[in-house]
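Now for a concrete sample entry.
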Amino acid sequence: MKMVYAGIVAAIAALAYQQDFFAQDAGIDPVTVSSIKNGLVGGEKFFLVAGGVKSDCVITAVGEGPKKDLTVTPDCSQQLPALAKVKWWIDRDDGSVAFVSSSGDVAAEFAAGDGAALESFAPREPLLALFAM
């Protein structure tokens, strides 16, 4: 009977070894289980509403960590000229977001919004709202 148990243990061990059960590095999974829409890969995208007026202004934040590269479409600088100079999206510890130029000037500051992803608290006029795309 001991030989039967030893045979079963050996078969299980051989199967586990064949299936790389003991492998330390999992490597790349060759099985595709889902896909990502190309539009979602380029960072976080928002459209801007200034003073209740929606335009074609699209704001994109790309990067990891609290300081992300910020790009705005030309419509943004027409709607709010201060946005033409912004370079970075900075996530702050208190949950607010600042749009900062390369010289370090803060062009706009946002906090979590009611109905919008983010609403501005600076500048006070016009009220800016960012809606996720």
